[in-house]
Amino acid sequence: MKSIKIIFIFLSIALLISEGLLFAQQKQNSKKIPSNIISEVRVEIEKLYSDEPADRVLAAMRLGEMGEKATPAIPFLIDILSDTQSVIIQTETKNIVASTSPDREALTALVNIGKPAVQPLIAVVKDKNITVRKNAIEALGEIKDARAVDALIVSLKDENPDIRKNAAEALGKIRDVRAIDALVTALKDKKSSVQQSANAAIRSILQQLKDTRAIEPLITLLNHDEPAIRRFAVEALGGIPDPRVSDHLILALKDNNADVRESAAESLRKIGAPAVEHLIKTLRENDITIRVIAIRILGDIKDNRAIEPLIDVLEFRSRKPIQEEAQLRYEAAKALGKMKTISAIQPLITTLGDTDSHVRESSAEALRGIGTPSVQYLIEALEDENIHIRVGAVMLLGDLRDTRAMEHLIDMMATDFFKKSWMLRSEVAKAFGKIGDPFAIQPLQKLSNDRDSYVREIAISALEEIEKKASGK
């Protein structure tokens, strides 16, 4: 048994040696080194055909260190792109032991030589040897020369999925917009690894287009058949501070793909102030969906130029109330609440009397957001003729817990509309409880004997809250 192992080891060593010799002989015979190459480069080229793979590795490394000076070595470095014999080396500079191979070091050398290596590498991207194709494609991606784009696009259709994946990765590094359509096709590749690399490449290409020079190519992509490309394009446009961008992104809000619409809205938010005037114009659009989205974006941007247009939307009433207009008022109230502007307080209070309950709720929420500056306006609204406005004002004064409201709430209890509305009486009782002022005890005791059971229940609960607060429990 031991003898069999020894024989196997010897045979393996012999095979490796013979492979190295065969590689060296075949390659040396395939290329004749010109006599006019400078000696420093020539010496290393000759070592590329050494019987020892370690010599071939070191020769490739030294040629790479020479950069463009090693240009005459390009065909010989390409010649060993199929040489995958593993070698363990110790670097002279960092004293690190690492595993490598002649093909990997040849690839690195070709990248270091740079542009002169591009055309020779393009010539071998269709080589019969998969390793050669793979290394050539990787090198072209690292060199990042646009001349390689067409050849790499062809490689996206290679029969080998690893080659297709590498081609997509290389195109992502070169970042040439001409590759977009081919990469879109690769998004549907049967191999997920190719799809992922194509996706990353598309994003990489579009990300580098984020300057004013890229506006036209990106705008063109907004009309692409593939939704993913349209989405990538609107995302990229969101990073360009140019006034021309906003109108095109607003048009993208009408896209038939939800992801594209969402990305367009997010890009407009990123653009911010430069997009405001364009969004304000959109408030006059016939398309209700676009108007709603524009209102939301304006609320998020919080630019004062949008206040009056949003108030106009809030106050608009047609002869026949329709659900669409109620939705616009609802969104306008929410947007004004985000902006927390004092000039919107009175219009929002007026909208507490809206015929649509959702609009009333969003107006109330907006006034809560504005907070203390709303108090005096709400106190004045306690005498409004509209029951919804009075009830809403009482509710909000309770939520804001401002003691300035106490006197006015107590005075309200003597009015006829207070006596007639159980809803108003119950909200006043709630407000007393929230404010928690001891001066509310006597009015609440009166309300605890109210003819309406619900009002009595609320009043008793409010009294208990005030008593707990007073006792410190």
Provide an overview of this structure.
The chain is mainly alpha-helical. It folds into four domains: 1-113, no CATH class; 116-208, Leucine-rich Repeat Variant (Alpha Horseshoe), CATH 1.25.10.10; 272-370, Leucine-rich Repeat Variant; 374-473, Leucine-rich Repeat Variant. Helices cover 67% and strands 2% of the residues. The chain has helices at 2-30, 39-47, 53-66, 74-79, 102-113, 118-122, 130-143, 149-155, 161-174, 180-186, 192-207, 215-221, 227-237, 243-252, 258-271, 276-282, 288-301, 307-315, 323-339, 345-351, 357-370, 375-380, 387-400, 406-412, 416-420, 422-435, 441-447, 453-471; strands spanning 87-90, 97-100. It has a two-stranded antiparallel sheet with strand order 1-2. Helix 12 runs antiparallel to helix 13 (227-237). The longest helix is centred in the N-terminal third of the chain and has 29 residues, at 2-30. The chain is elongated and about 115 Å long. The protein starts with a helix and ends with a helix. The relative contact order is 0.03. Mean pLDDT is 87; it is low at 4-30.
List strands and helices in order, with pairings.
Elements: H1 2-30, H2 39-47, H3 53-66, H4 74-79, E1 87-90, E2 97-100, H5 102-113, H6 118-122, H7 130-143, H8 149-155, H9 161-174, H10 180-186, H11 192-207, H12 215-221, H13 227-237, H14 243-252, H15 258-271, H16 276-282, H17 288-301, H18 307-315, H19 323-339, H20 345-351, H21 357-370, H22 375-380, H23 387-400, H24 406-412, H25 416-420, H26 422-435, H27 441-447, H28 453-471
Antiparallel strand pairs: 1-2
